[in-house]
Amino acid sequence: MGDISESEKVVISIAPDKMSAYVTINIPSNERIEAEEIYLQLENAGVTYGIATETISQLCHSPHNIKKQIIAQGIRSTPGQDAIITYFYERPELKPQLTEDGKVDYYELGNIIEIEMDDIIAERIPATEGKAGYNVKGEILNPMPGKNASFKTGKGIVVDNNKAYAEYAGALDWTEDKVSVSKLMLVDKDIDFSQGNIDFPGKVKIKGSIKSGFTVVAEEDIEVIASIEDAEVISTKGSIYVHGGVLGNGKASLQAKNHVEAKFIQGANIKAGKNIIANEYILHSNISAGNAVLIQGLKGRLLGKNEIEAGAKISVNSVKSPEGLNLTVQGIDRNNIYIRIKELNEKINELDAKMLSHSIKIRFLVEKKDPTSQKELERILRQYTPMMQELEELKEERLSLANMLRSTRGDGMIEIHSQVNDDISFFIKKEQVKLTQPLKNVTMYFDHKEKRIVIL
């Protein structure tokens, strides 16, 4: 081996990402390298962080040449954790639930969840910044901070630091995944002469019954723990839930924008914008639902003379005494629904853009304290709130239409799980179904391509 220059004895190389440095030692077998020489070359190469001092000490006692030994190691940055929000209340599921004994519960679907002022609705663990790293040249590697998360809350909920509180006592309400607090009227007894009629701009929860001849009107949901007699019950923007049943004596009248759900329905006229659900039976009633009529509990039966009409679907577990029974599905037009969903998407995107622009202006004006800015802020806030409400309504309609398409076969369907005799009157999209023999577990739907009713 020829003479080796001092610069060739210790050679420091650095990885392209600067996260590692390597040493190569070229010396005659009878020589030893001094630690100071290695440190000097590291300094000349700009390596200042993560130097392996023990490795250097070992290299000084090594009797042979070393090729690309790691001599310094950087530390990569640690990304921050995303924020985590925990909601302490869940939206009641509007779908059948299995009870412990295996039965299907169709009538305890919607429960008004009472809330007190200052109750904690949700809590947030904030995002973290992460931990910085360093390369072997001592340069800081800034971490990717965790993503923050906003509470999905609406009216009646105040956010303070990392907690969301109920601003006032009431009931929880959900629009898609956003939770808010609505006004609640709680009645601990029957609706009778001691209480009188009710007309309330919020939710109403009645722990007794609604007696004959009385009227309950609410802007949002109405929940009745006992029963409804021949009374008038109207929910202009929500649903009606009856844990007991409806004993209407032919005079009860129930109307809801969304759903009507009851243990049983007898002698009633009921109209719902979306679904009507009975767990045990429907008897001597006129029923009209914008989407579906479901009588599917373990005891779910249609008894006697009934007029049952649905926009898209009728599903019944059992039919008894079919004389005078008419089942009618008005049917849907899938193409028109697709067009409507497209229109809703466009409106939602347009409204989202407007609200984003307004939110930027709001953040800017909040930082200013002059009277002119405050007046402009008040003006924008007056526009922002109705826009937010409109956006929620559009999303709710889109979700409802999408659910209708998913749950309906063809352009309209009727399904009955028990035996069906040939003396029941079935109509789907104005086409009459004629059974030539009794059938069991039958599904009928209107095939929009073949323009006819298919019986399975």
Major sheet attributes: 22 strands, mixed
**Stretches where pLDDT falls below 50 for ≥5 residues?**
none
Number of strands: 36
Overall average residue pLDDT: 88
Helical fraction: 10-25%
- Portion of residues in beta strands equals 35-45%
What structural class do the secondary elements suggest? alpha/beta
Gyration radius, to the nearest Å?
Answer: 35 Å
Query: How many DSSP helices?
Result: 5
What is the 3D form? elongated
- Separation of termini? 92 Å
Task: Summarize this structure briefly.
Helix content is 20%, strand content 38%. The protein has 456 residues and is of the alpha/beta class.
Could you explain how this protein is built, in words?
With 456 residues, this protein is an alpha/beta fold. Among the domains are: 6-73, no CATH class; 84-127 and 149-180, no CATH class; 334-407. It is 20% helix and 38% strand. It contains five helices and 36 strands. The strands form six sheets. The chain has a 22-stranded mixed beta sheet that branches. Helix 4 (334-366) packs antiparallel against helix 5 (371-407). It starts with 5 loop residues before the first helix and ends with a strand. The mean pLDDT is 88.
